[in-house]
Amino acid sequence: MGRMHETPGHLRRPAHDTAPPTALTIAGSDSGGSAGMHADLRAFFSCGVHGMTAVTAVTVQNTVGVTGLVEIPPETVAAQIGAVATDIGVDAAKTGVLSSATTIEAVLAACDEHGIGRGRRTPFVVDPVAASRSGEPLLRPDALDALRDEAFPRATLVTPNLDEVRLLTGIDARSRDDLLDAAKAVHDFGPDWVLIKSGHLLDDPKCVDLLFDGTDAIQLPGPRYSTVHTHGAGDVFASAITAALAKGASMPDAVAAGKRFVTRSVEHAYPLGAGVGPVSTFWRVSPRSL
Ligand SMILES: Nc1ncnc2c1ncn2[C@@H]1O[C@H](COP(=O)(O)OP(=O)(O)O)[C@@H](O)[C@H]1O
Ligand SMILES: Cc1ncc(COP(=O)(O)OP(=O)(O)O)c(N)n1
């Protein structure tokens, strides 16, 4: 038998020599690094997918609030989507801040062109971010109709929190019992799936989110941790779901994986600055290790 030749050390192939799945976030930046595309990228990498960005807006933001927002020209947002879709490929995509009706139109046209959306090759998660945690608007008033009437029907999954449910449907959900009506009302706008997030039900001792496909509802139970540091929780949840979809998971499995990820992220949330600190996307690694 011939002698096996060892690969010289300097030519050794990396342990993972095939490319990981890819995920794209179409979202705004947060200079404080807690929410928006910064949180999305951290969650993507922690969940083992290659993260890519189409930046829609730059926010001036820290743990206390948002003091500025500059929109990226819609054609530049669309061009970013085209650049990564045509060269790298997108296994799953999500949205965050979409800021204006013209940006939404440009994003949806680019997604249509590149097979991103409900019933297409690439799953499309629409997180209808309307305002920051501290209440500053992140969406122009004219954009709400475009989000509901144009983006939702193209979404594989829509992930509103309870403030966004109120804004979009007028339903003021006050307890777990109200979540199914909220999910039905959002589902009527046309997405395949709706995930109603329950973080804002502060009197509920648990965080039980609800996934709905128009027929069946699946409860996603989780503990409620006693922390104020939940900045970016919604972004991290939607991104962890998007990462699982990029790996080929079914929607119920992807949302269950996302819920496990965000729950641990809230558990390990940390104080930062003078305001609301971020959920941790790196609870799997020690911050002290080199
Ligand atoms: N204090 C908490 N403890 C555990 N999970 C939480 C807590 N607050 C929010 N979550 C979870 O984080 C995710 C994001 O929820 P939510 O806060 O409602 O959205 P958003 O960040 O978009 O406002 C949900 O899965 C929710 O159940
Ligand atoms: C640039 C930017 N995008 C999104 C948000 C909101 O983040 P989200 O996770 O939906 O909400 P909070 O958990 O921070 O309330 C943001 N603040 N900035």
Task: Give short descriptive properties of this protein.
290 residues; alpha/beta; 9-stranded mixed sheet; 8 helices; binds adenosine-5'-diphosphate; binds ligand LCLJCK34
Protein described:
- The protein has 290 residues and is α/β, with parallel strands linked by helices.
- 33% of the residues lie in helices and 17% in strands.
- The chain contains 8 helices and 9 strands.
- The radius of gyration is 19 Å and the shape is globular.
Low-confidence stretches: none
The total count of helices amounts to 8
- The gross shape turns out to be globular
- Compute the separation of the termini in Å: 44 Å
| Structure classification | alpha/beta
Strand order of the largest sheet: 3-2-1-4-5-6-7-8-9
Mean pLDDT: 94
Compute the gyration radius: what is it?
19 Å
The number of distinct β-strands equals: 9
Helical content, roughly?
Answer: 25-40%
Ligand catalogue: adenosine-5'-diphosphate, the ligand Cc1ncc(COP(=O)(O)OP(=O)(O)O)c(N)n1
Element order: H for helix, E for strand: EHEEHEHEHEHHEEEHH
GO molecular function: kinase activity
Organism: Saccharopolyspora gregorii
Keywords: Kinase, Thiamine biosynthesis, Transferase
Catalytic activity: 4-amino-5-hydroxymethyl-2-methylpyrimidine + ATP = 4-amino-2-methyl-5-(phosphooxymethyl)pyrimidine + ADP + H(+); 4-amino-2-methyl-5-(phosphooxymethyl)pyrimidine + ATP = 4-amino-2-methyl-5-(diphosphooxymethyl)pyrimidine + ADP
